[in-house]
Structures are given as C-alpha cells and as structure tokens.
Amino acid sequence: MNASNEVYANFAPIPNPARTLVFAETFEDYPACLSLAGTNGWQADSEDAIVVSTRSDLIDGVAAYGLSHAYPVNTTHSQVGFSEQDVSLNVVSASNSIVITKILLKMSPHQGTPVPESSEIPSQLKVIFSEIGELMLLHGTPATSIARWSTFSGTIYDADTWHTITLEQDYQTVGQGCRYFRISVDNGSWLTHANGYSANDETGSPGGHWFAFANTSPTRMNRIRFQGTVGVDDVLISESWTGQGGRGDGNNNGMWDFWEYQYFGGTNQSGGEATADWDGDGFDNLSEWLADTDPTDPNSSLTIKGLALEPGGLKTFWQGGRAATQYLETSENLNTGSWQPIYTNQPPTEILNEFMDSNPMVPNLFYRIRAVRE
User: Which of 290, 309, 329, 351 is 20 to 30 A from 99, comparing alpha carbons?
Assistant: First the structure.
C-alpha cells in the first residue's frame, strides 16, 4: 500500500510533543463525518483519513461487546472511527518502559496473499485477518533484519464482530539483539506460536508468546498497522501498565489511569484524588470508580432509590453503573460483618435495577447495595 494512503497517528513525546501518554480516543468528541487528518495526533491526507462515523453497521454490537468484556473506555458508542485504508499507530517509548496498546477493531478479511516478508520492515507490527478469518501477525526475527508472517491457525474470527486487540511492547528488556511484544485478542491469553519465544530476554527459546519487533534502542518508534477496511473505537495507549488488559494504576490510588484521563483529564488533577468528590454528590471518586458510576455527574452514584411493600414481598430499587458486580445485602442490625447477600447482579448491569425479597420475616431489617469491581 502506498504510504500516502495510510492513516496513522503519532503518540508519545516524540515526534509530537503535544501527544503524550496516557492517550484515550473514543471518537465521541468530534462532529459526525469529521475527517481526523491532522486532528488530535492523527495524520493523513484528508481523503484517506479516519472519518468519525455514525454508520449503523459499524456501531451495532460494539456497545454490547465492550460491556461484556469489561471494556472499553467509553460506553456510549454513538460514533466510531472508520477508514477504507490501513490504520496505523506510531507508538514511541519515552524511555525504558512498557507500552500497552488496546483498541477495538472491526476489520475486513484480507483478500489475496500478504505482502512478501522480504518487502516488509521487521520493526513494524502488522495485524490482518485472513480470507478465512485467521489472525496473521507480521513481526521480526531475533538477531536478524528479517520480517516474517505468523498465522494463528485453529481460531476463526468473525469479520462482522468487534474484537479487542491488546499489545504489550516491552522497551525495558533486550534479548538476542532485539526487543519484543506480545498480543491477545478479546482479552484472552497471550497468543503463542512456534515463531514466538518463551521469554523476552537471552533465555528465550523458540515457541511462545513473545515476538521480536525492534532493535535494542531504548527509545524507539514502532508502527502497529491494521491492514484493510477498518472500523476502530476506543484506542487506549499507556506506559508501564502491569498485566494483560491495561488495568494500570501508575499513581497507586486504586483507580485505573485511563479512567482518570477519561473523566478528569489526567492522573494528578486537583479534585481527581481518590478521596475527593469531583461532582459533590457525597461519593468520593474511588467509590464512584468501584461502582462504575460517573464521578463528574452528581446524579450518577450507587444509591438505593426506594423500598416498596408489595403482595409478593419487599421490593428494593437502586441505581448504579454497568461494569461492577452489585450485591444486595440485608442485616438485622448495623454491626460490621452481619450483612448477608440476598441477590447478586453480575455485569453488565442496567443503570436502574430492582429485586423482590419474598421472605423479609424479621421485625427489623436493613438493606444496602454494595459494588465490587474486578
């Protein structure tokens, strides 16, 4: 593909100092049909750029997918990105760090044979779905300048379904003359292949989930390229996140970094501290995080809205978020440790909920709603 037909984004301190990590792109903050060429870090000719789209065939199913996978950043999904050309993310490590990239994709199958390995760049990651729906990954080879394709046979991905792609690029460790990355799909285990390595250092042997992608430079741009007609939503890029899925908490305040960026615009914002109450609704920010409610909306909180005595028993009404497990509990007194669960509401949950307690057979009974977020 001609470079002029490539849609790309530059992230991290270089070459675009204004675009630093953490970066979260939801596509909800733009006018519909806006071309993102030269906008907010995106670069391309206007006719080739990602377009903010409201197409129903792109949007249908993405919200349900995101909620069922305890992701993404945004739960609205009234707008997504779309490009009929390649979409690339040019990700730069500011220093020796780990860069996590997570993105929702709906990508058409690649038609025909991929570009020959001899014509590819070994420091470029490339992801395509084959004609039959198998994931194909372009990566480098340790201690060489050779690029190669690896096909993950046995799993067929539906091109009409949104998928979460998670990539971890390790700029901290050098092994056999290069650096490594690993990849997962739909929040599953890291994908393994005979062309991968068991470890990302000098002890690695063939066969594993680490794939070569770069030289030994501690600060290096690497291109992640999704080739084909692509729907894209909820791009999430951060440094030094721990574990699969990018649930990073760099300031150790109990709240995921990307959630703080989503609502507060950063991880060290005044009023965004765990014990602060941004919206003044009586629930601190950490409590809103745990309940998956909106910390900037005073009408969004985990709250029992009422009780109603009905012929079938006592009905409790409450509101909350979507991504937390909710426990309706009762107690005959308010002593700590005396609460017993009577109903568990598993995510994704509705904002408004109700439950009928058909056997409240004690003179005094207290109810509470509790949320736990994994």
Answer: 290
Between CA 142 and CA 159 the distance in angstroms is: 32
Same domain, 78 and 201: yes
Residue 239 Cα distances to 91, 100, 172, 254, angstroms: 10, 6, 11, 17
Omega of the bond prior to 372 within 30 degrees of 0, cis?
no
Give the helix ranges, DSSP H, for the chain. Answer: 56-59, 62-68, 257-264, 285-291
Residue 110 to residues 118, 136, 211, Cα–Cα distance (Å)? 19, 10, 22
Looking from the CA of 286 toward its CB, the CA atoms found within 13 Å total 8
CATH code of 330's domain: 2.60.40
Domain assignment present for 283: no
The first and second tokens of residue 218, run together, are 């501690």
pLDDT 10s digits, 1-13:
223 233 444 443 3
Residues 207 and 338 in one domain: no
Residue 110 lies in a domain: yes
For 53, 81, 164, 219, the CA distances from 30, given in Å and listed in that order, are: 10, 10, 22, 32
Q: Which amino acid is at 24?
A: A
Say whether 331 sits in a helix, a strand or coil: strand
Task: Please give the full DSSP string across 170-234, using - where no structure is assigned.
Answer: EEEEEETTEEEEEEEETT-PPP-EEEEES-SSTT--EEESBEEEE-S-SS-EEEEEE-SSEEEEE
Report whether 303 contacts 317 (CB < 8 A): no
Dihedral-angle region of residue 363 (phi above 0 means left; psi in -120 to 50 means alpha; beta otherwise):
alpha
Task: Report d(CA 89, CA 101) in Å as an integer.
Answer: 9
Which of 189, 224, 239 is the C-terminal boundary of a domain? 239
Specify whether the CB–CB gap between 92 and 231 falls below 8 A: no
Distance separating alpha carbons of residues 227 and 231, to the nearest angstrom: 11
Q: Is residue 248 included in any domain, yes or no?
A: no
- CB atoms under 10 Å from CB of 315, counted, come to 15
pLDDT tens, residue by residue, 105-155: 888 888 777 777 777 665 667 888 888 999 999 888 887 778 889 999 988
CA distance 374 to 368: 20
For residues 234 and 308, state if they share a domain.
Answer: no
Domain range holding 44?
Answer: 3-239
